[in-house]
Amino acid sequence: MSTDAMPRLALAAVLLGALAFALVPLILPTYQVSILTEVLIYAVLAMSVDVLAGYTGRTPLCLGAVFGVSTYVTVYYSSTFGGSPYVGMALGVLAATVIAALFALLAIRTSGVYFLLLTLALGMIVWGICLRWTSITGGENGIRGNVRPAELAAHLPFYYVVFVAVAVVTFVMWRFVHSPFGLTLRGIRDSESRMRALGYNVSLHMFIAFTVAGLFSGIAGALYAMFNDFVSPSTVALTQSVEGLLMAITGGIGTLFGSFIGALAIIGLENAVSLYTERWQTVLGVAFIVIMIFAPEGILGGIKTLLARKRG
Amino acid sequence: MDRRTFLKTGVALAAVGAVAKPYIARAQASGPIKIGMMAPLTGVVAAGGREMVDGFNMYWDEHGGEMAGRKVEIIVEDDGANPDMALQKARRLVEQAGVSMLFGNLLANTGLAVANYVKGNGMPYFIPIIAADDLTQRNRIKNVVRVAGYTGSQFPRPLADWCLKQGYKKAATISQDYTFGQEQCGGFCQTFTEGGGQIVSQFWHPLNTSDFSPYLGQLANLGVDVIFAMETGADATRFMQQYSNFGLKGQIPLVGAMNMTDQSVIRTMGSEAEGIIVAAHFAEGSPDPVTQKFVAAHVKKFNKLPSLYGFSMYSGAMWVDEAAKTIKGNVEDRDTLLSAVSKTELTGSPLGQTVKLDAFGNPIYDVHIRKVVKNADGKLWNAPIATYPQVSQFWKYNPETYMKQPPYSRDFQGIKKS
Question: From which residue to which does any coiled coil extend (chain A) (predicted)?
Fold first, then answer.
């Protein structure tokens, strides 16, 4: 096989996927459009998980909380404070980035299971604060928002706004992981000590990667604020982080675009299965086990290996 | 197309439109009535959610599955006790399933999320269980109606008054630390202190507290005349058991929020729950024949005494059914439906009294002070010992002045400084 056939094929697949996301909503009923909007937003969260888990070799369990911080700030600013939703979103992303930077300072000292546990604890702190700081966050009841501007109230226009935003974010993330800096991250993933020996400031690189992942989760969180117009502690809960990680794993860790497949598969399955049975969580669980056994590298990862095997 | 044909076509089209319009409306009103019903069927409060669905279905089963002569199609969705999921399910029911009204949800956070969603699209949303004060007070949404429900602070007020009449002067409260608990404690504390009582101390503990000994130790040494407790679910069971185990039972009278001694809790308990006094609109141990008929039917169908969840959903269904009858089943017209619901006075309620809504969409009840006792079969139930007629969510206050005070929270409990 020629070496540039793969990228060309990949490019074609990405364009085809983007085209599908652009056109399918036109023929879908409005409810499915809102589901698709959610898929796009969660894909961004999954991609930012992938930046750390797939490209840097550090699996985070706090990006859901970072995502939620952005949602909280956006909703709080625009409803309780009465400010412009767009300023609120900017502040939300900023807050998420700052929180991620703080977390990064603590988390980059660790790796492996310690990294997992530390980020889990950090995420739980955010959740605890949101739950107990009733005067600001509304506690268990959350905050009802007023984020979505009237011109975006309908599902379709809002979908396309999200679509454009996500397309831009995806491109930036793709550039980020394929930049020379992104290569150093992969170097750190494969051998931290060698990268250090080569003279790279490993801690700094990991700090930047973590903060950038936080920034992207923050963007997803701000979009989610506009999508849901409501925030409560369940948005910053551990399940949110786990969901993001599961999407990244299902799609294929270290593939970036796999996140879209993962988000589509999980949110789609959640909605389709829960139509038929209360035990939809069991079905989801079984689906994960099946994926992990037969395609441990995720759906997109599996396809890639399959293609490579056919040609090789 | 010349001007003449254009005019002709225009007139013809307009005529077709005028003729067809009522026809379309009628066509819409003849099919089954779709009702979206949400309840937590998974998650921490799944047991309560199941009883909600049972109570709701029980009403429609008894009435031939019809509302005002039209078939009812109930679409049950699991909200997972999670506001994000509740929101998603509400969207699906409204936008995909095309329901004419939404019913249900158990936890306040799920209800508030859905309420915010229907605020935007005007879908009628009935909440027999969600007790968050502000949904029918400061942040009232016109299409959110608490049929057969109650607000958090509504019933503790008559209870506080009753406590004062027993000569209790000093009280302490213990409650789960979230809005529902803060609202109930607020109602109790405000009425109790305004009537000359004193709140010595208040304890807030996280949901799912397994060991109450630190709190019980402090409560025992405060020298209070009465303790007001607000607990739900497993916390309620544990609290009452430990209250008894630590020897406080019989020493300091225990009163509380109605959910603490709800059937869903005391069904599995023994003598430790006996004698606890709470205030509520519904008392399954009421001698009223209408109530007993409902209780017997529920026992026959599900082999257990009805809980608040089953009762509320049953009555809520009845309320909307009665309202639909007055508008000939034309529930698709939202404004007509909402105004019919708010005008309906519920005569057939299992409470055995006529219930009506106040101007804010919250019912006014005769509130029973009820005591946990053993019934003839040796099962625990709540029997009324006193009644406060016509208690609204505003107690004896003027609604406008009342709503000027901040909502109840941990920091604001309406305690009057003496």
Answer: none
